[in-house]
Fold:
Amino acid sequence: MDAGYPRIASAGPAGPCVILSAMSFSETLSALAQEGAVLAGLAIALAIALVATPLAGRLAGVGGGVDPVDRPRIHTIPTPNTGGVAIVLAIAAGSLVFVDLSGSMAGIFVGLPFVAALGLLDDRRGLRPLIKLACLTAIVLIPVVAYGLSFDRVTLPVLGDGDLGWVAYPLTILWIVLVANLVNLIDGMDALAAGIVAIAAATLALMAVSFGRLDVAVVAAAVCGATLGFLWHNYHPAKIFMGDSGALSLGYLLAALSVEGLLKTPATITLLAPLLIIAVPLLDTSFVVLKRLKYRRPPFGADHNHFYHRFLRIGFSQRRTAAYLHLWAAALAAWAILVRFLPPRPTGDWDLSNSLIVGGTGLAVAAGSIWMVYTLEILKFRRLDALRLRRTRPAATETEIRGEVEQDLETGEFQAVSAETGEFGAVGR
Structure:
């Protein structure tokens, strides 16, 4: 179903990459309006998710589809975790009517029900992490090995195109498995994962249209619509969770679609864009894993040091925490879109105006990211933890309080402050 729009051109392996802005932003929006399948897929998926999510919740009692209050999630009552079933059905309904299932795209949809089934099994049986990882890797082999889903070339700034050869296949497998797990790991708070995926999918759909990859755009739009429909039921206080069936499936689709729609396209932004649209879960997981390695703990165990845990500890409500993290993800996605439609080297030569705009905006986004991680998480925590210590140990000196605050920051072992009462209470690991 690829449209006959001009494609991005490249100078080839020996020369620098030439990024021709084949479709401007306004042309891309016009193409979206003309190609009704993209918006129709979004609308169908949204409507089905709105209706099917409560039905999936009612079926949660069959087979134990309920999240107890014993996981590193932020919830206080047992909650249905079968929302992923509704999400996957909505995506399929919004996509399959319009998409030509052949080649790599067929492989993506063949693998999707297996990923969802693996997530459902994990929600009910609690699979060991290594077993789940091995099963997910085996499923990813379906689109990659059996249907040829891979990116065999990579375009780097200045250096141009490079042929990956056989390495393309393990890299593609690693990328899909990584993103699926990143989305799964960040799904620990009401509305967080669904909102971030909706932002990423909308960005991916827009870029896919600009590259003339309309099949990918339709599916990405359906992903966006399904997550938006699910969000209606998942905002705090959530009536239902997506569970591993939803989180793994959404991550799998984002990664696979980014390979099919962006990474196969010879333009520098196609390497940068997928990293930017999943930057928040990538940074979040990296932060947690590095901290666990630092203290010689298993790197992929359950943890209470995710960004959202830390924001809640300093007194943010769940809605406010989700809003800040969604805003962060949207800012990174917006910068990716800006680089796509205002490339620093539109014809192979540096454009000063474009470079200054993109560079200045990138610095602003980077500064906002640093502010998000450091100011909100660290500085406010220092103030609140010092306040706690002064309340509980009135005889302690300022030097002792500062030393204990620094120790709490290093180890991650401290008490939380309630957003509702302002009182401190113990937080488990």
User: Anything to note?
Assistant: Residues 352-392 form the longest helix (41 residues). The first strand starts at residue 66 and ends at 67. Residues 2-21, 416-429 have pLDDT under 50 and may be disordered. Strands lie at 66-67, 79-80, 153-156, 160-163, 415-417, 424-426.
